[in-house]
Amino acid sequence: MRTLSTTRLSLMTTTSLVVLMIGTGVTWAQVKNPELEALKKVVEELRRRDAEKDKKLEELQRQIEAMRSSLPAAEKPATPQVALEEAVKEIEPQAPAPVPTDLASRQVGGSTFRLIDISLDALFAAGSSTEREASIQQLEGGDHDPRKRGFTVQQAELSLTGAVDPYVTGEAHIIYLIDPKVGDTRIELEEAFLTTQALPYGLQLKAGHFFTEFGQINPQHPHQWDWLDQPVINTRLFGPDGLRQAGVRLGWLTPLPWYSQLYVGAQNANGEIAASFFSSEDFFGERPIGGRPFVRRDVRNLTDLLYLLRWENSWNLGDTVTTKFGLSGLFGPNATGSDGHTRIYGTDLKLTWRPTTSFRGWPFFLWQSEAMGRDYVADRFTDGVVTLPGKTLRDWGFYTQALYGFSYGWAAGLRYEFATGSGASVGVFNGREADPFRDDRHRISPLLVWHPSEFSRLRVQYNYDRADHLEHQDAHSVWLGVEFLYGAHPAHKY
């Protein structure tokens, strides 16, 4: 019995030790597990925060009740719930303030001036032609066209746009270019104007120095052109830099069921940037319209300003096709004498197709056409040696172009142009056929475009020109264009 008891006792002792060791081992393993310890700490911290928050809310609630009991009846909150929500907002973490995106901002009187967009857009061209450089200057008559064998700095445009206040925005574009004839650097104020944002009845006022909103191409900056050069008829009617001047323009968005806007404008009529009107003596020294002499004129009254009337409309032909149609007219004095005046009229049409499943705007198809004409009513001229009768010189023409974006970043297009006129040029030209800015002209221009990104563009353009003033009647030219953009360029009008 004693032996059995001893054995039984030993067995029980051993079993207890094993159980104790197992239990101790599990507890030790739990204590030593770092992941479990971390989770336990997180749970304890969350419980502590909840307890503190509940305690804080209770304390705030007591303070609110005490304040309500001490306030006059008119000052008491409408409900305790509203006061509690405001108190909760005070202890909750505040969202970080938005990071300002303006390049510069400062207080000016009661308004804040914000410079929103600043950019530099540079255009360069390289190429050659079967014509000599003196002839290229007339064949490519725009100041921003490729105009010489070798390389041309078409322009570098510095653009600044800002919101002056809630009612007015400001915009300025400064152009740097190198004259291809002599290599001089030129700086031009291309545009600087303000536009209202809050006039009633669908009205908008633009004031300052700006492009005249005639047709499609003239209001555009050169970097907005699809082709490297401006159309021939635009160069003839609006000069090498396009028509722009200081003045005002009032726009009215009509209440018609489609987009329809009327523009009425008044601008100065002088300078080479108003070539068909008062123009300038320097401009006539290079390009006398119809060979007529330049007659200096003063501004006598409001009839000596340049006036614009334009009506433009837009319709959506389904979900993928948009059209835009416009009619434009200009009237003002010209540089041939006190009774000389000019009328310019035109119509334009643009069609845009983009499928609903396009990728960053590709594929697309653009078709754009403009037709315009000019009645240049030249006054009678005499200086004791030369006498010229009064005469109406008519010039008209059109262009039509199509551009197809066939793959992302790539597009191909074709443009055809025609320009002609009536009424003989005099003086050095002795006939319209010898006048490079009034003769019969045809031009065909295929184009290939590649956009490596949204900030760069490469273009290859071939021009076949047939013109009466050329010695061999036709010319062949090839131009390569490179463009790059720094910064955020302001959006342009569609």
Tell me about this structure.
With 494 residues, the chain is an alpha+beta fold. The chain has 2 domains: 12-91, no CATH class; 114-487, Porin, CATH 2.40.160. It contains 6 helices and 19 strands. α2 (34-70) packs across α3 (80-91). The protein starts with a helix and ends in a 7-residue tail after the last strand.
Question: What labels describe this entry?
Answer:
494 residues, alpha+beta, Porin, 16-stranded antiparallel β-barrel, two-stranded antiparallel sheet, elongated, disordered N terminus
State which percent range the strand residues make up. 35-45%
Kindly provide the name of the CATH class of the largest domain. Mainly Beta
Number of domains: 2
Oligomer: single chain
CATH architecture of the largest domain: Beta Barrel
The CATH homology group name of the largest domain: Porin
Percent of residues in helices: 10-25%
Count of alpha and pi helical runs = 6
Rg, please?
A: 38 Å
Rough outline: elongated
- Find the CATH topology of the largest domain: Porin
The description of the largest β-sheet is: 16 strands, antiparallel, barrel
Order of helices and strands: HHHEEHEEEEHEEHEEEEEEEEEEE
Q: Residue ranges: pLDDT <50 for 5 or more in a row? A: 1-32, 73-78, 97-101
Mean pLDDT: 85
User: What's the N-to-C terminus distance?
Assistant: 112 Å
Strands, count: 19
- Indicate the structural class: alpha+beta
Q: Give the strand order of the largest sheet, numbering strands 1, 2, ... along the chain.
A: 2-3-4-5-6-7-8-9-10-11-12-15-16-17-18-19
